[in-house]
Structure to design on (799 residues):
């Protein structure tokens, strides 16, 4: 782990040791000056507040590290920038090959491509809906068998004594399921842990997360979430559907499987980051739609997370994928329930129908709703802070797969024990009438014809528990039951999120909020004489669920629409919006949202929508990396190979320059070429001398680059002989001749907007004569997004 990240520290001088590349925390030149042209005039540019890197394990060489294995304690710093993350090349490289292909394509060809995009989106929605249907059916079946076995065992030993055997049975069943889910995640595909929403947020933001959209990740994610939910953990299966939809989109849109090494020779035009990222947006939206039955909410989720690149047709295609997804899930679930054609199950979580009469609200209730939003923000902030420190502990001490599996099994056993204890000591008995639709009513010590109300909350899947809190008649739960359940489930959910299992936080958040929201409504009814008229507990359970979820994840626009669509009633659109906004404002005062916290803990160079508020005094000159490693328009092959092989830099973008006069430094910019393009050129031996000697040599096409995408071979796998090193390579035809550039004095907010709005990976900084003086990458911007304290520190360094 010491070789994966580097500590980022402030320094008031320029980095003397050279820079790392796009795949490293810093991009500030090369350690080998013979391949680096210091176009800033030998570092004469005044650079203040630059970042320097310090190895976390300076005393430990790579050989020693490999012998000792992982360190016992992994150092942590929330301002780390990880070496393993790169940016997506969302901006098209409009080189000569690209322009020639576009010009050769007829109008009918463009229309066929557009039709293909719609077909791909339809397939994405269909397959995502099928996966959601499979997960739902398997979870309901296995959970039903488990709860039925435990229920019969409890009823048996209630009369004859020995309920400890029932507790052991419950704990063993939970631990067994969770062990299977944790093993496949920890040992086979760790990226499948959690809900996957932070990773998909990063992907839509423009960061390439390793292995996040692999087929193997999808298989482990689906199997893991089934085991987690059936194992009784305080988790939900809805969040992972967003990740699953994104993986489906990434696979279908490429027309091949790199994992299975199977190429279907279709959709080859879409094999580039530009198209793939658009389809992943559609997949994420289809996942939201399948999870919550909220196609519009799915579109807004993708828009909210990464949509600087949107256009009208893309929006319609994403909406189409969302509609197909929810329809597919509806249709196949209706067949499963022997009611073909009844499309009443739009998503995995079904809140049930909120009738207008039961959810009517008055103007004087809006302040109460806002107060509940503030409570949700406070509880959400507490949840996030506790989970943050738990995650820090796991990063440092529970980083081995075997320990991760053991922790997951421990949490499963503790969850079963706490649930059993709450049910055992509860004396909240409710009459079991014909109107009660309890799936597994547990009598325990209640009289005949009654059931234990606490068992309704614990002895069930979280989705059914949420629905019962929304729709059960007033008087179903007493305040003590709801209070104890809220307290215990809050800490169980906080402990559970972050385990090495596939699981989401949406449903636990809704369940916690629904419990204290219903308690809020009961207390209101008890202190007002007319409480039975307006203080309906189900109504306040809905508001509490929205407040708690908003306080934890801090989503506003998309979550409002998702909640409205899931309830099937637009009446509560305004209260839900006010509640979510209040929860976000209150929660943001203390700590960031849960997903943003985990993105930071993963050291991802995530770019927010706006630059720091007080950053207008910063310019591109302070932010950029320099000196820059550049190539000539016609460059020596040996020089290119040496630069690409330099592991201390690992650059991914290189300005191509031309010298107006011999020895002219710095040289003028004439284009930009990527590492991936150079590797393909080296692989195909596109050398000037060979092109002259082989008149019949096939001309390189864009198809050659698409065939190598996305797993371009490493430079070490390409053999270049000593004679070939002396050859020359002409980059004119393959470089992007029109890269985006900014002057040195461009303000940081303007640079930031260009990056986010255009989805850039590299932004070249030039002087007034178009000479390269620096390069801005995502990590250069991400490290400056430090908030008020970091900017004040930088300002002090400059003054």
């Amino acid at each position: 782990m010491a070789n994966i990240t580097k500590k980022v520290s402030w320094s008031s001088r320029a980095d003397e040791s050279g820079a790392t590349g796009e795949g490293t925390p810093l991009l500030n030149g090369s350690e080998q000056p013979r391949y680096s042209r210091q176009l800033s005039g030998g570092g004469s540019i005044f650079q203040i507040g630059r970042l320097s890197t310090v190895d976390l394990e300076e005393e430990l060489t790579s050989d020693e590290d490999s012998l000792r294995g992982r360190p016992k304690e992994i150092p942590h710093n929330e301002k780390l920038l990880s070496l393993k993350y790169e940016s997506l090349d969302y901006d098209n490289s409009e080189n000569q090959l690209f322009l020639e292909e576009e010009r050769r394509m007829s109008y009918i060809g463009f229309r066929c491509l557009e039709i293909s995009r719609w077909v791909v989106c339809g397939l994405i929605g269909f397959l995502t809906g099928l996966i959601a249907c499979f997960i739902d059916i398997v979870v309901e079946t296995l959970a039903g068998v488990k709860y039925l076995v435990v229920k019969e065992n409890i009823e048996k030993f209630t009369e004859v004594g020995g309920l400890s055997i029932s507790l052991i049975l419950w704990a063993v069943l939970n631990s067994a399921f969770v062990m299977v889910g944790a093993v496949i995640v920890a040992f086979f595909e760790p990226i499948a842990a959690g809900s996957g929403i932070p990773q998909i947020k990063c992907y839509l933001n423009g960061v390439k997360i390793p292995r996040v959209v692999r087929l193997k990740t999808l298989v482990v994610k689906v199997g893991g979430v089934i085991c987690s939910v059936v194992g009784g953990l305080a988790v939900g299966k809805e969040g992972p559907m967003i990740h699953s939809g994104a993986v489906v989109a990434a696979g279908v849109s490429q027309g091949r499987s790199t994992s299975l090494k199977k190429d279907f020779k279709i959709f080859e035009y879409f094999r580039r980051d530009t198209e793939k990222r658009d389809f992943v947006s559609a997949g994420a939206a289809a996942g939201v739609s399948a999870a919550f039955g909220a196609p519009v909410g799915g579109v807004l989720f993708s828009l909210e997370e990464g949509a600087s690149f949107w256009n009208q047709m893309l929006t319609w295609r994403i909406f189409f994928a969302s509609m197909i997804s929810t329809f597919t899930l509806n249709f196949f679930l209706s067949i499963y329930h022997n009611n073909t054609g009844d499309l009443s199950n739009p998503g995995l979580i079904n809140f049930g129908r909120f009738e207008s009469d039961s959810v009517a609200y008055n103007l004087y209730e809006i302040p109460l709703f806002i107060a509940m939003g503030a409570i949700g923000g406070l509880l959400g902030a507490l949840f996030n802070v506790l989970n943050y420190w738990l995650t820090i502990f796991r990063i440092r001490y529970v980083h081995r797969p075997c320990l991760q599996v053991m922790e997951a099994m421990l949490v499963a056993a503790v969850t079963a024990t706490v649930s059993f204890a709450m049910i055992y000591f509860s004396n909240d008995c409710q009459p079991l009438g014909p109107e009660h639709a309890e799936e597994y009513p547990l009598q325990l010590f209640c009289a005949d014809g009654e059931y234990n109300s606490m068992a309704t909350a614990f002895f069930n899947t979280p989705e059914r528990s949420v629905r019962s809190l929304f729709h059960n008649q007033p008087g179903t739960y007493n305040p003590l039951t709801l209070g104890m359940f809220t307290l215990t489930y809050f800490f169980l959910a906080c402990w559970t999120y972050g385990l090495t299992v596939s699981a989401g936080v949406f449903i636990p958040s809704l369940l916690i909020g629904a419990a204290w929201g219903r308690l809020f409504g009961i207390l209101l009814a008890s202190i007002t004489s007319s409480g039975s008229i307006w203080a309906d507990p189900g109504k306040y359970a809905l508001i509490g669920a929205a407040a708690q979820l908003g306080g934890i994840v801090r989503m506003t626009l998309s979550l409002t629409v998702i909640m409205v669509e899931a309830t099937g009633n637009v009446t509560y659109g305004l209260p839900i919006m006010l509640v979510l906004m209040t929860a976000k404002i209150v929660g943001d005062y203390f700590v960031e949202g849960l997903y943003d916290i985990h993105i930071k803990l993963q050291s991802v160079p995530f770019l927010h929508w706006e630059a720091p508020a007080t950053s207008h005094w910063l310019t591109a000159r302070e932010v950029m990396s320099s000196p820059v490693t550049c190539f000539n328009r016609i460059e020596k092959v040996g020089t290119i190979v040496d630069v690409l092989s330099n592991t201390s830099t690992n650059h991914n973008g290189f300005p191509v320059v031309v010298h107006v006069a011999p020895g002219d430094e710095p040289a003028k910019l004439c284009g930009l070429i990527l590492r991936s393009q150079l590797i393909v050129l080296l692989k195909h031996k596109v050398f000037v001398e060979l092109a002259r000697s082989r008149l019949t040599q096939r001309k390189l096409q864009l198809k050659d680059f698409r065939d190598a995408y996305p797993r371009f071979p490493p430079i070490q796998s390409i053999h270049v002989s000593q004679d070939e090193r002396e050859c020359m390579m002409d980059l004119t035809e393959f470089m992007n001749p029109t890269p985006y550039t900014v002057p040195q004095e461009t303000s940081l907010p303007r640079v930031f907007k260009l990056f986010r709005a255009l989805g850039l990976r590299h932004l070249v900084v030039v002087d007034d004569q178009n000479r390269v003086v620096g390069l801005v990458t995502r990590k250069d911007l991400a490290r400056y997004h430090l908030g008020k304290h970091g900017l004040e520190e930088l300002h002090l360094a400059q003054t």
Residues 1-78, 786-799 have pLDDT under 50 and may be disordered.
